[in-house]
Amino acid sequence: MSEISVVLAEDQGMVLSAFAELLGMQPDITVLASVADGTAALAAVVEHRPDVLLSDIEMPGMSGLDVADELLRLESPTRVLIVTTFARGGYLRRALEAGVAGYVLKDAPIEELTRALRRVHAGERVIAPELAVAAWGARDPLTDRERELLREVAEGASNADIARELRLAEGTVRNYLSTALAKLGARNRTEAARIARERGWL
C-alpha cells in the first residue's frame, strides 16, 4: 500500500481538526499540513508538494476552486479533492474546468472520503453521484468579469470600491453589473450576487 501525502484546507476549525485526526488514523495517509484559508492552502501545496490537496470550496482568501485553478496554471502534480457541503452543479462544472480530480460531500461517511482519497491518488476521477446529477442543471451565463464583480458585491463592496480595486471606470462597473442582473433576472446587485452564489457560479 503506497503512502499518500495530504494537505488539508478547511476554514471551520472543528471540521479541520476532525479531518486531520481521522485521516491521521489511516496507515497509508500522512497529513503534511492543515490550513484554514485558500491562500495558505496554495502556499502549503507549493511548500510540501503533497500527493493530494483535500479542500473545502468557500474559504477566506481564495476559494478551493481558485486554488485548483492556480495549481492547474502552475502545472502542479498535486491532485485536488474537493470536500464540500454544496451540492451545486455550477460549482462542479467549475471544479472540472479547474482540473479537480474529486468532488465529494462532507456528510459522507469517513470510509467514503478515504476511499475517494485513495482513488484520486491512484489517478481516478471521483464525483459523488448526487453531484453528477446536479451538474446537468442550468448553465452558468456569467462571463469571468461579471463573476469577478459579483464576488466583490457579495463581499459588500460598492461600485466605487470595485472600480478602484479593479481599475475600471465606475460606469463600466455599472454596465457589467446591469448585464449580470439581466442574465440572472435579479432586481438589484445584491440579489444578483445571492442568486449567482446559490447556483454555484461564484
UniProtKB/TrEMBL annotation:
Residues with the 4-aspartylphosphate modification: 56
Domain named HTH luxR-type is located at: 135-200
Task: Fetch the CDD domains from UniProt.
Answer: LuxR_C_like
Do you know which SUPFAM superfamilies this protein is assigned to?
Answer: C-terminal effector domain of the bipartite response regulators, CheY-like
Cross-referenced InterPro entries = CheY-like_superfamily, Sig_transdc_resp-reg_C-effctor, Sig_transdc_resp-reg_receiver, Tscrpt_reg_LuxR_C, WalR-like, WH-like_DNA-bd_sf
User: PROSITE patterns attached here?
Assistant: HTH_LUXR_2, RESPONSE_REGULATORY
Q: Name one GO biological process term.
A: regulation of DNA-templated transcription
Q: Which is an annotated GO molecular function term of this record?
A: DNA binding
Which stretches make up the Response regulatory domain?
5-121
Keyword terms: DNA-binding, Phosphoprotein
What protein name does the entry list? LuxR family two component transcriptional regulator
Q: What is the scientific name of the source organism?
A: Tamaricihabitans halophyticus
